[in-house]
Q: What sequence folds into this?
């Protein structure tokens, strides 16, 4: 119905309906309200086409207004340009692509005349391959190869870092400092490698290095700094201070930008490297890979920007609460996959005055790995720890993985399904892989009901789903014993090792009950329902298992803490398993959840006529 306002000569249209048919009907009703059109046949006249055009134009305008309204807010924006613009208002610059990095040892043989060192200059090109293809790596620093004391003709350097990408250079001529824009035309830039130099003029051999700044603290009119923001096409624009907050370039200056263009995620997993040139004229070069390439990543996604921009704004360039540390560490180390932080007061036992930091990196297959000692030390020296309001010291805690062994039993009715049994199995496997990518993060959770619901939704032929989950953790037996924390309540009577072990006679005397053990038997463990962990013997010949009273540790069923005394195991690296008391499993602090993918078992049980037949 049209909305009347007492003026019979004025059309007033109901604006509450915004789909085409409602708009058209409202226009017609508004027209019929005028005496001129009371008995007019709108459907069978030329006016119908005019009303269609009006309705279409109105719908387009309404849709555009809705789109524009959505793009004005960070939460509802869809276009990357809109999300980036909203994030810029919060002082947040999205992370660019990050280059994969590898560490190698380089040796040069047959060196003559005993030079003090051989120079491996920055920009030296290396090549490598992985499953995705061939990739270029370069050195971003100069390295000196020094003489091997045991072999004077061999010069070597232990820790040469190779970065995946190709060096590029872009120049800008400064004309008008008020209107000039300096946009680097590359969507593949790794901004962590960006080096900005200001030359007095195009013929100058001297230059001033400008450093990237993310805040205006400690900056004055003479600070050689530049700022960075993302613009159209995922390009980055550099800009400078106004002479008050940062030194501005002058008209006639030349801006030189050196940076790496990288393939991001696809550069991960390169294991062997070849050099494309000689080193100081020598070609007998050996390259030993110490760390395969890792840490390559794609530019920050829209979803990630929406999450991180408000958190970064809340941190306000200072570190007080754990989230502040996480956000700023992610910005300072974009090649690290994930960080977590918590107060030392939450440790057991408490460590007051410390902030606990944990971090992992993942390769392009989503497989997590702990960081090297060099990476850990670089994190502990991060800038964020200089922004503490109080005297809080950082302490790094290595990540621990809790593996989820999942058995999925699926009941099917394939009568009306377009998918075959093998198709459904493949779909469930694919779902588990995607779910595992979400698990491989800090503070992730396996929610039993959600997991079952998502499997149920894979296909209409799935009638019901039953899932059994057990937990396992890897550990290494140490001379002082080992503590294993599942950080979840454990079902009594379910502890065991994934494989049996034999006794190492060389270390048997270090066990208090070592003399009672038989080196001719295999052993496993069991818990006695009272919190004690005892040995279980397995006859090598007939597999008969016998529970012993030899106690080697304890288990707290409520907290999930397992304490094992030293056991003289032949295989020191093992995996211990149990069943969780609760269906929902949560990763906390340095604990990360991950499916034990090779051990995922899928049982499909199809309904045919009146019975189920196991497939």
A:
């Amino acid at each position: 119905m049209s909305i009347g306002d007492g003026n019979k000569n004025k059309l007033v249209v109901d604006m509450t309906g915004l789909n085409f048919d409602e708009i058209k009907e409202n226009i017609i009703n508004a027209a019929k309200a005028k005496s001129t059109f009371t008995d007019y046949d709108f459907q069978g006249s030329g006016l119908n086409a005019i009303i269609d055009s009006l309705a279409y134009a109105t719908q387009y305008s309404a849709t555009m207004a809705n789109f524009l309204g959505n793009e004005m807010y960070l939460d509802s924006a869809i276009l990357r340009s809109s999300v980036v613009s909203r994030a810029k208002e919060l002082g947040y610059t999205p992370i660019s692509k990050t280059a994969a990095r590898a560490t190698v040892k380089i040796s040069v043989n047959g060196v003559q005349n005993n030079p003090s060192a051989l120079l491996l200059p920055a920009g030296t090109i290396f090549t490598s391959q992985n499953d995705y293809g061939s990739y270029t790596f370069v050195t971003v620093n100069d390295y000196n190869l020094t003489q091997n004391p045991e072999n004077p003709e061999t010069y070597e350097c232990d820790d040469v870092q190779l970065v995946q990408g190709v060096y590029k250079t872009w120049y800008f001529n400064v004309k008008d400092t008020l209107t000039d824009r300096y946009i680097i035309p590359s969507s593949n830039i790794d901004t962590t490698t960006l080096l900005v130099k200001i030359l007095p003029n195009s013929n100058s051999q001297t230059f001033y290095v400008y450093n990237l700044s993310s805040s205006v603290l400690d900056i004055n009119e003479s600070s050689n700094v530049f700022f960075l923001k993302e613009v159209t096409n995922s390009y980055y624009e550099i800009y400078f201070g106004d002479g008050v907050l940062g030194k501005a370039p002058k008209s006639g200056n030349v801006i030189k930008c050196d940076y790496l263009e990288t393939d991001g995620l696809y550069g991960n997993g390169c294991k062997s490297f070849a050099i494309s040139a000689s080193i100081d004229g020598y070609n007998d070069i050996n390259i030993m890979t110490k760390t395969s390439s890792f840490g390559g990543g794609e530019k920050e996604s829209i979803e990630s920007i929406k999450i991180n921009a408000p958190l970064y704004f809340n941190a306000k360039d200072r570190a007080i609460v754990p989230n502040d540390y996480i956000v700023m560490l992610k910005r300072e180390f974009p090649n690290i996959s994930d960080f977590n932080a918590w107060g030392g007061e939450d440790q057991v036992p408490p460590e007051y005055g410390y902030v606990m930091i944990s971090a992992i990196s993942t390769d392009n297959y989503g497989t997590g790995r702990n960081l090297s000692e060099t990476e850990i030390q670089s994190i502990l020296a991060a800038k964020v720890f200089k922004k503490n309001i109080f005297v809080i010291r950082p302490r790094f805690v290595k990540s621990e993985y809790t593996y989820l062994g999942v058995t999925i039993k699926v009941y099917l009715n394939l009568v009306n399904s377009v998918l075959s049994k093998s198709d459904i199995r493949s779909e469930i496997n694919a779902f588990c892989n995607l779910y595992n990518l979400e698990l491989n993060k800090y503070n992730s959770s396996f929610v039993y009901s959600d997991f079952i619901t998502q499997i149920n939704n894979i296909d209409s032929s799935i009638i019901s789903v039953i899932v059994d989950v057990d937990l396992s953790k890897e550990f290494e037996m140490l001379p002082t014993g080992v503590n294993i924390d599942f950080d979840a309540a454990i079902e009594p009577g379910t502890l065991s090792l994934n494989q049996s072990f034999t006794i190492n006679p060389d270390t048997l005397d270090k066990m208090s009950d070592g003399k009672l053990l038989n080196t001719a038997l295999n052993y496993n463990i069991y818990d006695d329902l009272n919190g004690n962990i005892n040995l279980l013997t397995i006859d090598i010949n007939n597999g008969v298992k016998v529970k012993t009273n030899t106690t080697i540790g304890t288990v707290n069923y409520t907290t999930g803490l397992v304490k094992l005394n030293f056991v003289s195991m032949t295989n020191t690296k093992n995996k211990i398993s149990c069943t969780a008391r609760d269906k929902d499993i949560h990763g906390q602090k340095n604990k990360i959840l991950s499916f034990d993918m090779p051990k995922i078992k899928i049982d499909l049980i199809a309904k045919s006529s009146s019975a189920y037949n196991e497939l």
Remarks:
- The radius of gyration is 33 Å.
- The chain has a mean pLDDT of 86.
- The longest strand covers residues 462-476.
- Residues 47-71 form the longest helix (25 residues).
